[in-house]
Amino acid sequence: MFWPLLLLLPCLAPQAKPIPPERDARRPENQNQPPPGAAEGRPAPVQATPGRDKRSALVDPVQRQRELANHVARLEADHRSRVARLERLLEVYTGLGDSAKVQQCEELRARWLKQYKGALSAYKKSFAPEAWQRLVSGLGIQEPT
């Protein structure tokens, strides 16, 4: 009974505004243009990652290094917390004589240390050697071998 109204519904919907050519990402000529501000000597924009504020897409190198240093600091805090918890669990399970749980905790610690080493080496590539040394000494990181 209402099906004639359903046929007219798309005609009654407001039409979408056309996208200006300079903002249309589907246009191929936008892909070959230099980033905005590159001609004036400003830093090139960094692509925004999903879930982040789009205003942080244009970041200067100093801000980017500071952001990476904060990531390393959070990683180190997380590492210390995890290792301390695993060490405590090892003490408890060793005292109880539960060898299965001790083995499980040692496997978890080995997996975490492998992941931690990989993350540190990836972050190390993002820093200059002297900047990395300052960061490591400032945070008290003992680089795993």
Model description:
- With 145 residues, the chain is mostly helical.
- Helix content is 57%, strand content 0%.
- It has helices spanning 3-12, 61-96, 99-124, 129-139.
- The chain is flat and about 75 Å long.
- The model has no long low-confidence stretch (mean pLDDT 79).
- Count of DSSP strands: 0
User: For the CA atoms, what is the radius of gyration?
Assistant: 26 Å
Strand portion, in percent? under 5%
End-to-end distance, in Å? 76 Å
Order of helices and strands: HHHH
> Which parts are unreliable, with pLDDT below 50 for 5 consecutive residues or more?
none
If you average the pLDDT, what whole number results?
Answer: 79
In terms of quaternary structure, the protein is single chain
Secondary-structure-based class equals: mainly alpha
The shape is flat
Continuous helix count: 4
Largest sheet: none
Percent helix range: 55-70%
List the helices and strands and how they pair.
Blueprint: H1 3-12, H2 61-96, H3 99-124, H4 129-139
Helix pairs in contact: 2-3
Q: In a few lines, what is going on in this structure?
A:
The chain is an all-alpha fold and 145 residues long.
Features:
mainly alpha; 145 residues; single chain
